[in-house]
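User: Mind C-alpha cell order:
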Amino acid sequence: MKIAVVGCGALGSFYGAGLCRSGNEVHFLLRSDYDVVRQRGVTVHSASGDFHVQPICARTPEEIGPAELVLVCLKTTANHVLPKLLPPLVGPNTAVLTLQNGLGNEEAIASLVGAEKTLGGLCFVCLNRVAPGEILHVAHGTIVMGEFGRSSQPRTHTIANAIAASGVRCVVTEDLAAAHWEKLVWNIPFNGLGVAGAAGFEAVEQGRLIPGQPLGPCLTTDLLLGDPRWEKLVRELMMETIRAAQALGLPVPNNAADQQITRTRDMGAYKASTLIDFERGQELELDSLFFQPLCHAQKAGVTTPRLAALCNVLKEIKK
C-alpha cells in the first residue's frame, strides 16, 4: 500500500514507521525534520522492541502524489494548512484517515476531499518525540477507527488489517462518534488538568486564575491520580463527559471512567500532549479537545460545571 503521512511528530512517526516496517511504501511529508529523517531514518524505542526504518521523505505533497491511504496526524491547530496539503495526495481511490485529537476533524477533511473518502481514528497510546526522527513509545498503541458518517466498508477492514500487520492492534468501530467521546473521557481531564493544574487547585476549582499567583509546573498523570483532590476532579470531569455523550445518544458506558483511570495508572509520570505543547510554548489544541465538547454538552442540555471551569482557566492561561 502507498501511504502518505501528514504530520510526522510522535504520532505520525510511530504509526508511519510501523507501517513502513511491515512492507508498505510509506512517504513522510516533513518540514523541519526533513534533513535528519532523510539521512538517519526513524528510530522507535519501545518496551516491545526497538526498531529502525527509512521512510521515503518529501518536502511537498506534490513530490508524493496520490496515495492509497493518507494518515493525517497534524495537531488540530494546523488544520488550516490541509487545503494546501491534501489535494495533491488524494486520487479517486484514496482513503484519508485522521488520527487527530478531539471533535470536528472528520468534518474538516470531508469538506476538502468528500465524506466518502474520510475516516477517523482514535489512538490509545503514550508517545513522546525525544528528537528529530526519534520516538519513545511508553505504553499502549491501539487504534479504534471507523468511517465518517457511515458503517464500515471493505476498505475499512483492509486498512485495519494493514495497521494490525504493522504490530499495532486496530479495532473497527461502527460508531465513530461514540469512540470520539470515549477518548474524550481521558483527554479532557488529563490534557486539561495537566495544563490548568499549573495555576493551582483553587484556580481550577473556581474556574479563574488567582490574581498575583504565578503558574507552577504542569501535572503529569501520576500527580493527578496521586492526590485525592485532583483525582476527584479527574473523575468529575470524566462523568460530565460521559453524561454529555449519553445525552447525545452515544453508548458511552458509566464504567468508562474506571477503565480509563486503571489504564492510566500503568503509564507512570506521563505527560499528555497538551502539557508538552504548553511547555514548548506552542499553540494548544483547545477548540477540538475542550471548547467543542463543552458546546455539544450545552446544546444537549447537560450541565458541566467542571468542564466549563476548566475551559475558563485554559482560556486565561492561553492569553
Notes: The radius of gyration is 19 Å. The CA atoms of residues 201 and 230 lie 8 Å apart.
